[in-house]
Amino acid sequence: MALARFKPFMTLKTVIDSVEFASALIKRPSVTPADAGALDTLQAALEGLGFVCTRYPFGSGAAGEPDARVDNLYARLGTKAPNFCFAGHTDVVPAGDTEKWAQDPFAGLVKNGELLGRGAADMKGAIAGFVGAVSELLASGWTPKGSISFLITGDEEGPAINGTKKLLEAITQDGEVIDHCLVGEPTNPNAMGEMIKNGRRGSINAEITVTGKQGHVAYPHRALNPVPKLLKIMSVFEARHLDHGSEFFQPSNLEITTMDVGNPTENMIPQTAKARLNIRFNIHHSGQSLKAWIEQVLEEARQGFDGQIDLVTRISGESFLTQPCKLTDVMQDAVEAVIGRRPELSTSGGTSDARFITNYAPVAEFGLVGATMHQVDERVDVADIVTLTAIYKDVLTRYFA
Question: What's this model's pTM, rounded to 2 decimal places?
Fold first, then answer.
């Protein structure tokens, strides 16, 4: 992407109302990986503010396939460094049983001071807040001493194959450099200003299949029961204490998520038994080191066993930490200035696309209250969107000061 294509700064009178824009985004039923016009809505708003937008579609498969086609957007205002990037996603999880919702999950209606709809918290409200913040600053005649960019994917709630990771690779090849990045995930558990995420734990999934020999329970010598072997294997995993945590990380945890035999017959020894586990790990480990440990446990279990033990692993993300720096200081100062509460730096919770961004720039996350995300009647207080817009404005003015 040639820098010459970027538009110069100009004073704009257009101010985008964050609440109204969040509602407009919710009205686009962008259930991952479908876009449903959500990125078109965002692009039109950003182009109206002077951003140059480029779409990056990846994948060729249909929805539900591993290589499902996903649309992505990169937009930039300005040509100079530093480049402050806002990252997020317009895709949402399915609404589920719409009959259980108080209103249409994609109507984007405000009722009793709350904006209700799928994606209100996670994370169309935050995208709208950042767009509103930029529009208010530009309308006032403010000009950043650098550039502002948006890195928006439609694949965060999906397999994350054709989204942020590929988008970062593509814009880097086009010559783009991000200096710092704020991700608008809903980081606050209960109230605005509680928490900034400056890191995330990694995640590895493992599926173990033990295959023996089916037979009658009265004649065990003619069969090979896989269940006792699987129980012994899982007891080894369950017994290990992974670590004690660190300054910013809670201890890593291993959870057995299922054990399945699928044997409906009382007097039959089954042929196979399966189990799955997930490990959420901190910076004391890597996905590869934990995979090696799992493989070692299974190799030891194979000794003297006449059956077969198979393993499938998937590392969905590595742990990362953004040490306190200019970015986290600016974000904490902005929150404290707007609402009088200084948020803690935390690495709790699940994974996010920040795990990809950390390889390119310091990254931290701050958004709305996430208490209802992915739930029936997902909603956020209208006042919180207004507050978040004010915080994002303060972040930008402090960052470029």
Answer: 0.89
